[in-house]
Design a protein that fits this description.
It is built from 14 helices and ten strands. The strands form two sheets. Strands 2-1-3-4-5 form a five-stranded parallel beta sheet, sandwiched between helices. Strands 7-6-8-9-10 form a five-stranded parallel beta sheet, with helices on both faces. Bound molecules: 5-amino-5-deoxy-1-O-phosphono-D-mannitol (M6R). The site of 5-amino-5-deoxy-1-O-phosphono-D-mannitol has 16 residues, from helix 4. 5-amino-5-deoxy-1-O-phosphono-D-mannitol binds next to helix 4.
């Protein structure tokens, strides 16, 4: 059932173009630009009364929530707060009936996320779950459920669940933005057109698989990795680092690039691979200065950037090319090379990719 792939993780990485389509296909009208979310149980007046959105999740789903914060704040102009299940549940959070609590969970059984949802419900919050597992505890206990339809995810390292969570957040963001009057139908139409193009672009990244394995070969002996991103790409740096440490057991840290000077820069030497997310964005120039700072300390930069981005390519040791898309959708594209890089490094080091030591697919105890 691995369909010819060596591991479930690799199969699931390659399933992402299809999984994305399954997430959005039945929720968008391809002509009129409408988003149909029958599963969302707040009426337009209730949406207008919302004062804030709070998202609760763990692990990779928490990284999706961090990307979601950027998406939802820019699309809906509502304050968005993100917390880990294990922190949220014990901190007596400010949540009330004008809060929309979005819990994100692939399995729908993560104990801390479930406890966070229950805590928010006791305080009167409205609840929406983004879940992959149908009929799971989090899905059953939430007022509204948005299923990601990624299909079963077997590999312990989450991949297609993550990218479909991001598509879900994008659709929810556009839907709320329209109800709140922040997006006109023609803008929604444009946003949806960008989404429809995404699966093909993901395929272009997957076509780089061989080249990424070679890059894996080049860096597989490193003992540490640093991942840097800014803005909406910062959570992708966290996710890239999490993937690598989970399955290859190499120590890796994800950092917002602007924080480098405040500590992690001390780690940089000629042995440290530094993965930078350096596509064109409003903070591209800032990212370029970070790259220069890393190179000045002889760090080995692996940049994920557009294939025609010569500014980056001419500076760094290694480039992984990605196609162009909108800023809001770019995290979905940028995470793919990081999943593949982690996969190949782990496979080359001979670890048990699908069942890494000490980890469970779903963490149902605290
Ligand atoms: O099922 P969930 O999405 O609630 O799981 C949350 C985390 O346990 C999960 O994402 C974990 O971090 C993965 N192993 C990441 O690859």
């Amino acid at each position: 059932e691995k369909a010819g792939y060596k591991h479930f993780m690799l199969k699931e990485i390659f399933e992402q173009p299809r999984a994305l389509i399954d997430t959005f296909r039945h929720r968008v009208d391809p002509h009129g630009g409408e988003i149909i979310l029958e599963e969302f149980h707040l009426n337009p007046d209730e949406v207008k009364r919302l004062k804030k959105i709070t998202m609760v999740a763990c692990g990779t789903s928490f990284h999706a929530a961090l990307v979601g914060k950027f998406m939802l704040e820019s699309l809906c102009r509502l304050p968005v707060e993100v917390d880990l299940g294990s922190e949220f549940r014990y901190r007596d959070p400010f949540v009330d009936s004008q809060t929309l609590l979005i819990s994100i969970s692939q399995s729908g059984e993560t104990a801390d996320t479930l406890a966070g949802l229950r805590e928010a419900k006791t305080k009167g919050a409205r609840s929406l779950a983004i879940c992959n597992a149908v009929g799971s505890s989090i899905a059953r206990e939430s007022e509204s459920v948005f299923y990601t339809h990624a299909g079963p995810e077997i590999g312990v390292a989450s991949t297609k669940a993550f990218t479909t969570q991001l598509v879900s957040l994008y659709l929810i963001g556009l839907y709320l933005a329209k109800q709140l009057g922040y997006r006109q139908p023609d803008q929604i139409q444009q946003n949806l057109q960008a989404l429809f193009k995404l699966p093909t672009l993901l395929q272009d990244v997957l076509d780089e698989n061989r080249a990424i394995r070679e890059i894996g070969q080049k860096y597989m002996k490193a003992n540490n990795f640093l991942y840097l991103g800014r803005g909406i790409h910062y959570p992708i740096a966290l996710e890239g680092a999490l993937k690598l440490k989970e399955i290859s057991y190499i120590h890796a840290e994800g950092y917002p690039a602007g924080e480098m000077k405040h500590g992690p820069i001390a780690l940089i030497d000629e042995h440290l691979p530094v993965v930078v997310l350096a596509t064109r964005s409003p903070v591209f120039e800032k990212m370029m200065s970070n790259i220069e700072e890393v190179i000045a300390r002889r760090g080995r930069v692996i940049a994920v950037s557009e294939s025609d981005n010569d500014t980056v390519r001419e500076k760094v040791e290694t480039t992984i090319p990605v196609p162009e898309t909108s800023l809001e959708l770019s995290p979905i594209l940028l995470v793919l090379p990081l999943q593949l890089l982690a996969y190949h490094i782990a496979d080359l080091r001979g670890t048990d990719v699908d069942q890494p030591r000490n980890l469970a697919k779903s963490v149902t105890v605290e």
